[in-house]
Amino acid sequence: RIQAREKPPSNVSPPPAAIDVVRLARNMFFARASARRECIFRLSSYDAGVQEVAAQLPTYKISKYDTFQRDWRAWIERSQAAQPSWTEQDYFSLIDEPRLEGRHYDLIRNLLPPCGA
Questions:
Q1: Measured between alpha carbons, how far is 60 from 30 in angstroms, rounded to an integer?
Q2: For the chain, which terminal residue's Cβ has fewer other Cβ atoms within 10 angstroms, N or C?
Q3: What is the tens place of the pLDDT at every residue in 79-111?
């Protein structure tokens, strides 16, 4: 019998916006808690709470094709590998930091442990 996984497979990446949330939270954490040695930063972009916050923040899309075409074309030529499976329509989203407002920073701050908030 096949049972549902409690955690996603280890080879599935979290959304790039969730990685951005962890980066922003880490910056906040160390700006506030650097003097407190007992406080530990433990957020992960795999955390459901982090991904929920990421879904509420303003984002912008980046085309994988536009961003990586020069690099992957050169690599394909050198390695004789197959073309990537993604197409010109594939995008990923990152946090649009200039559009963040106080309420967005509050959402990120709420992810921090009490000693780092």
A1: 26
A2: N
A3: 887 776 666 567 889 999 999 999 999 999 999
